[in-house]
Amino acid sequence: MGRARRAVISLALGLAMALSGCSTAGTSAVDTEGLPGVWTGSGGGRVEFHADGRFSMTGIPAESIAFTWSEPRNGATRVSGAGTWERHDVYEDTLLLMIDAGGSFPTDEEIASLMVAEDGPPQVLFFSTNVDKPYGYEIRKSS
């Protein structure tokens, strides 16, 4: 996915959060230095973040990702994939996952967002899909 497309999608996500009245006051910025490693959630979900800005994930509940442009392959209820991560330019408590085509994702047009659920240390992150629901699927650093 091109840098311009990521910027447009990032801006759209930011505007949606601002217009929805979603407040993340009181949370800290995503600790990108503490991010590399394996993070796990309930039911076997796993995300591995690498210091070079790459990530891979397996076993993440499909409803934890707001599919905008496609649907998970084969109607999967748990998804896997890989891509790149970066902290949101405006909302520092939000981490964007730009998902590559492959695994459960038929295209490279999906972006998932993670937000800080607990400041930590260590931080607890959650997949954010619904501005009316305070938290989504949580992951914690395990190694």
Terminal Cα separation, in Å? 30 Å
For the largest beta-sheet, the strand count, sense and barrel status come to:
8 strands, antiparallel, barrel
Helix/strand/pairing category: mainly beta
| Helix amount | 10-25%
SSE run: HEEEEEEEE
Q: Strand-residue fraction? A: 25-35%
Secondary structure: number of strands: 8
Descriptive account of the structure:
This protein has 143 residues and is mostly beta strands. Helix content is 13%, strand content 34%. The chain has one helix at 3-20; strands at 37-40, 46-49, 54-61, 78-87, 94-99, 110-118, 124-127, 138-141. The longest helix is centred in the N-terminal third of the chain and has 18 residues, at 3-20.
List the helices and strands and how they pair.
Blueprint: H1 3-20, E1 37-40, E2 46-49, E3 54-61, E4 78-87, E5 94-99, E6 110-118, E7 124-127, E8 138-141
Antiparallel strand pairs: 1-2, 1-8, 2-3, 3-4, 4-5, 5-6, 6-7, 7-8
Features of this protein?
143 residues; mainly beta; 8-stranded antiparallel β-barrel; 1 helix
Quick take:
With 143 residues, this protein is mainly beta. It is built from 1 helix and 8 strands. 30% of the residues are buried.
